[in-house]
Design brief:
With 124 residues, the chain is an all-alpha fold. The protein is built from four helices and no strands. The chain is elongated. InterPro entries: Iron_permease_Fet4.
Length: 124
């Protein structure tokens, strides 16, 4: 079931992210706007676009979140592999996302100090 969802969500995200989908969306909105006088700008006419956009937005939230989670996990795994493969790299960095906010703050400070030290060396 998860594999099916992954395949569907990936295909949908690719499709929705295309320029053609944007063009189709613009055409739909223009057609809706142009049809306003035909339907006398009725409540039903307004409800049509409101309902359609609400449903699409609702579904897209889940689709985008899934795609973002998957991309972040893939990026994290690639970085983990690079850390593992580089001689002298601190392998404790591999699962940084599991550290507490305080631990991350300490590491950020450590790297900030290292960066400042490198700036001084480069200016010399």
């Amino acid at each position: 079931m998860q594999d099916l969802f992954r395949r569907i969500s990936t295909a949908a995200a690719d499709m929705v992210g295309s320029s053609w989908t944007f063009i189709v969306a613009v055409v739909i909105v223009l057609a809706w706007a142009v049809s306003g006088p035909l339907f006398h700008f009725s409540d039903t006419w307004q409800l049509l676009i409101n309902t359609g956009t609400t449903i699409i937005t609702f579904l897209m939230v889940f689709l985008i979140q899934h795609a973002q989670n998957r991309d972040a996990e893939c990026t994290q795994l690639k970085l983990d592999e690079l850390i593992r493969a580089v001689k002298g790299a601190r392998t404790m960095m591999i699962r940084l996302e599991d550290l507490s906010d305080e631990d991350l703050k300490r590491l950020r400070q450590e790297f900030s100090e290292l960066h400042k030290g490198n700036d001084l060396i480069e200016k010399s």
